[in-house]
Amino acid sequence: xxxxxxxxxxxxIMGVIGILGSVLxxxxxxxxxxxxxxxxxxxxxxxxxxxxxGTVMVIMLIVTIAVVILDYIVPSYFTKVTGGSRSASRASxxxxxxxxxxxxxxxxxxxxxxxxxxxxMIIEGKQIGASLKSAFGSFLGFLFGTGLKLVTCGIIxxxxxxxxxx
Length: 166
Hints:
single chain; mainly alpha; 0% strand; elongated
Protein backbone atom coordinates (compact mmCIF):
# COMPACT_ATOMS: atom_id res chain seq x y z
CA UNK A 1 0.00 0.00 0.00
CA UNK A 2 1.23 3.46 -0.90
CA UNK A 3 2.35 5.51 2.12
CA UNK A 4 0.31 8.53 1.05
CA UNK A 5 -2.89 6.42 0.95
CA UNK A 6 -2.14 4.99 4.39
CA UNK A 7 -1.53 8.50 5.77
CA UNK A 8 -4.76 9.75 4.20
CA UNK A 9 -6.74 6.93 5.83
CA UNK A 10 -5.06 7.53 9.20
CA UNK A 11 -5.68 11.28 8.94
CA UNK A 12 -9.39 10.75 8.29
CA ILE A 13 -9.66 8.26 11.17
CA MET A 14 -7.88 10.66 13.51
CA GLY A 15 -10.10 13.51 12.30
CA VAL A 16 -13.23 11.49 13.11
CA ILE A 17 -11.82 10.45 16.50
CA GLY A 18 -11.04 14.13 17.15
CA ILE A 19 -14.64 15.12 16.39
CA LEU A 20 -15.87 12.39 18.75
CA GLY A 21 -13.34 13.60 21.32
CA SER A 22 -14.92 17.04 21.17
CA VAL A 23 -17.98 15.67 22.95
CA LEU A 24 -16.42 12.78 24.86
CA UNK A 25 -14.26 14.08 27.70
CA UNK A 26 -12.00 11.02 27.69
CA UNK A 27 -10.51 11.94 24.29
CA UNK A 28 -8.60 15.15 23.55
CA UNK A 29 -10.46 16.04 20.35
CA UNK A 30 -8.59 18.96 18.75
CA UNK A 31 -5.09 17.56 19.42
CA UNK A 32 -6.04 14.22 17.83
CA UNK A 33 -7.51 15.95 14.79
CA UNK A 34 -4.45 18.17 14.49
CA UNK A 35 -2.16 15.13 14.74
CA UNK A 36 -4.08 13.59 11.83
CA UNK A 37 -3.61 16.71 9.75
CA UNK A 38 0.08 16.79 10.71
CA UNK A 39 0.54 13.17 9.60
CA UNK A 40 -1.07 13.99 6.29
CA UNK A 41 1.05 17.11 5.88
CA UNK A 42 4.34 15.37 6.65
CA UNK A 43 3.84 12.02 4.90
CA UNK A 44 0.81 12.40 2.64
CA UNK A 45 2.66 13.30 -0.53
CA UNK A 46 3.60 16.54 -2.26
CA UNK A 47 0.09 17.28 -3.57
CA UNK A 48 -1.08 17.68 0.05
CA UNK A 49 1.07 20.77 0.54
CA UNK A 50 -0.96 22.57 -2.11
CA UNK A 51 -4.04 22.48 0.12
CA UNK A 52 -2.47 22.36 3.57
CA UNK A 53 0.30 24.94 3.68
CA GLY A 54 2.84 25.52 6.41
CA THR A 55 0.93 28.67 7.35
CA VAL A 56 -2.28 26.66 7.80
CA MET A 57 -0.40 24.17 9.98
CA VAL A 58 0.97 26.92 12.24
CA ILE A 59 -2.39 28.71 12.51
CA MET A 60 -4.23 25.48 13.30
CA LEU A 61 -1.59 24.57 15.90
CA ILE A 62 -2.11 27.91 17.63
CA VAL A 63 -5.90 27.51 17.45
CA THR A 64 -5.68 23.94 18.78
CA ILE A 65 -3.53 25.00 21.74
CA ALA A 66 -5.84 27.95 22.48
CA VAL A 67 -8.95 25.76 22.36
CA VAL A 68 -7.40 23.17 24.69
CA ILE A 69 -6.50 25.90 27.19
CA LEU A 70 -9.91 27.58 26.88
CA ASP A 71 -11.64 24.25 27.41
CA TYR A 72 -10.26 24.21 30.94
CA ILE A 73 -10.95 27.88 31.65
CA VAL A 74 -14.37 28.51 30.06
CA PRO A 75 -16.58 26.16 32.13
CA SER A 76 -15.15 27.45 35.41
CA TYR A 77 -15.48 31.02 34.21
CA PHE A 78 -19.14 30.60 33.23
CA THR A 79 -19.86 28.89 36.55
CA LYS A 80 -18.15 31.65 38.56
CA VAL A 81 -19.84 34.43 36.57
CA THR A 82 -23.22 32.98 37.45
CA GLY A 83 -22.33 32.68 41.13
CA GLY A 84 -21.24 29.06 41.15
CA SER A 85 -18.64 27.53 43.40
CA ARG A 86 -15.63 25.36 42.72
CA SER A 87 -17.72 22.46 43.98
CA ALA A 88 -20.25 23.13 41.23
CA SER A 89 -17.52 23.08 38.58
CA ARG A 90 -16.14 19.78 39.83
CA ALA A 91 -19.54 18.17 40.29
CA SER A 92 -20.52 19.31 36.83
CA UNK A 93 -17.58 17.36 35.38
CA UNK A 94 -18.43 14.29 37.48
CA UNK A 95 -22.07 14.52 36.40
CA UNK A 96 -21.01 14.77 32.78
CA UNK A 97 -18.82 11.66 33.07
CA UNK A 98 -21.59 9.69 34.78
CA UNK A 99 -24.13 10.90 32.25
CA UNK A 100 -22.12 9.41 29.41
CA UNK A 101 -22.72 5.92 30.79
CA UNK A 102 -26.42 6.28 31.56
CA UNK A 103 -27.83 8.24 28.65
CA UNK A 104 -25.26 9.00 25.95
CA UNK A 105 -24.90 11.63 24.51
CA UNK A 106 -27.67 13.60 26.25
CA UNK A 107 -26.60 12.27 29.63
CA UNK A 108 -23.46 14.39 29.43
CA UNK A 109 -25.48 17.58 29.22
CA UNK A 110 -28.04 16.57 31.81
CA UNK A 111 -25.34 15.12 34.08
CA UNK A 112 -23.28 18.32 33.98
CA UNK A 113 -26.32 20.39 34.88
CA UNK A 114 -27.53 18.08 37.68
CA UNK A 115 -24.01 17.70 39.09
CA UNK A 116 -23.59 21.46 39.44
CA UNK A 117 -27.11 21.87 40.81
CA UNK A 118 -26.68 19.19 43.49
CA UNK A 119 -23.25 20.48 44.51
CA UNK A 120 -24.61 23.98 45.02
CA MET A 121 -27.57 22.73 47.04
CA ILE A 122 -25.91 19.97 49.09
CA ILE A 123 -22.27 21.01 49.48
CA GLU A 124 -22.65 24.80 49.38
CA GLY A 125 -26.09 24.91 51.03
CA LYS A 126 -27.57 27.35 48.51
CA GLN A 127 -31.24 27.76 47.76
CA ILE A 128 -32.75 26.32 44.58
CA GLY A 129 -32.76 29.66 42.70
CA ALA A 130 -29.06 30.37 43.21
CA SER A 131 -28.24 26.72 42.55
CA LEU A 132 -30.15 26.73 39.27
CA LYS A 133 -28.36 29.89 38.18
CA SER A 134 -24.88 28.43 38.73
CA ALA A 135 -25.92 25.08 37.23
CA PHE A 136 -27.07 26.94 34.14
CA GLY A 137 -23.71 28.75 34.01
CA SER A 138 -21.90 25.44 34.22
CA PHE A 139 -24.10 24.10 31.43
CA LEU A 140 -23.38 27.14 29.24
CA GLY A 141 -19.64 26.78 29.86
CA PHE A 142 -19.81 23.13 28.84
CA LEU A 143 -21.72 23.98 25.66
CA PHE A 144 -19.36 26.82 24.75
CA GLY A 145 -16.24 24.69 25.29
CA THR A 146 -17.71 21.78 23.35
CA GLY A 147 -18.73 24.13 20.55
CA LEU A 148 -15.20 25.53 20.29
CA LYS A 149 -13.76 22.02 20.08
CA LEU A 150 -16.29 20.91 17.47
CA VAL A 151 -15.66 23.94 15.27
CA THR A 152 -11.90 23.47 15.50
CA CYS A 153 -12.08 19.76 14.68
CA GLY A 154 -14.55 20.48 11.87
CA ILE A 155 -12.16 22.98 10.27
CA ILE A 156 -9.26 20.55 10.58
CA UNK A 157 -11.39 17.78 9.06
CA UNK A 158 -12.29 20.12 6.22
CA UNK A 159 -8.60 20.65 5.42
CA UNK A 160 -7.96 16.90 5.61
CA UNK A 161 -10.79 16.10 3.19
CA UNK A 162 -9.91 18.92 0.77
CA UNK A 163 -6.29 17.77 0.70
CA UNK A 164 -7.22 14.14 0.02
CA UNK A 165 -9.89 14.65 -2.64
CA UNK A 166 -8.29 15.69 -5.95
